[in-house]
What we know:
By secondary structure, the protein is mainly beta. It has one helix at 2-15, and strands at 61-66, 86-91, 97-101, 106-110, 116-120, 130-131, 140-147, 153-158, 162-168, 173-181, 193-195, 201-205, 208-213, 216-222, 230-231, 242-245, 251-255, 259-263, 268-273, 284-285, 294-299, 305-309, 312-316, 321-326, 335-336, 345-350, 356-360, 365-370.
Amino acid sequence: MKFASIYIFTLIIGLLLAGCSGKTDSPSPGTTTPPTSTTTTTPPSTTSTTPPSPTATTGAIVTTLAGNGTEGYVDATGSAARFKNPSALVCDKADNIYVVDLNNARIRLVSPAGVVTTLAGNGSVGITDGTGASASFYLAGGGYVCRDASGNMLLSENSTTRASIRQVTPAGIVSTLTSVPIGVGNPLGFYGITTAPNGDLYISDGGAIRLFRNGNLTIFAGGTRGYANGTLSEAQFSNPDALAFDTDGNLYVGDANDCIRKITPAGVVSLLAGQPKVNGNADGKGSAATFSSINSLVVDKQGNLYAADSYLIRKVTPDGTVTTIAGSSPGYVDGAGTAVRFNNARSIAIDSKGILYVADLSNQVIRKIVTQ
Length: 372
């Protein structure tokens, strides 16, 4: 979420205009169709042995579903596919994965078998509605995604002057649900995005969480940057870009205060896990745990949270107990538990079977995680 802070600061100073970790560059206006070369970088080495089955001692099992560590733009299967900074993803009802391919300015579709195709976008930068390659995306700030009740992907994105919510159907039809000016008195940008059980849409904006309902945009919680719990109007957030609902209607928020907050249906904001404004990677319960960069959250059917936390994947139970299920230091290694390496786990998604998927941005791959 430090990415959003940098981006918003830049917009305010330069244009009166967060993303996450500051490790990627957004496409620049005027970018044309990206190259299809598959030799732009040398991929890091990975383990080549067959991963073991999950156990209580090995932790989660991580494999690479698509891509191989080399950036580029290629539709193909598994390691033959190429991405250029995959920054966000979400699963549809059939367990296909929608991927925001940031610097290719496209939406890619990855099947459960790892078959990669391009759903929408043509590589040029803009905000143009249409079908398939006739649509274009700006994706400043990295783009954040969720799925609505009809199975469409919803995407938050920003240009230099406007914040928009785009809809992408399974057929690749792209439309704009709302678009508002960026600046003083208006949103500083649209970032984290999620849908509530009743279908309402929640969007993060600097220090606020906004509600989009029936075409109207209002402030739901926060508004002033900082850290404070309490009622919706008393609460303060700092780039609350990781948003996820459970089935009971609780909204979980990960922000740049390096902690996870819980907002109940009654409108009470409290700390679930982490030490506010203390950066780290300690496991533990409640404030005994620490986080480094909570980029993305998902909730499973049992009410457990999973967080993409920089180079780690963390599990948070409903009582706030945090454990690291995969990852340790930066790198690119498949395997089990702490033997796994990520290089900017930028976004996390979950399918109907409880399988997790991670957009491993700097490794240019989509990773698959089977938990215990």
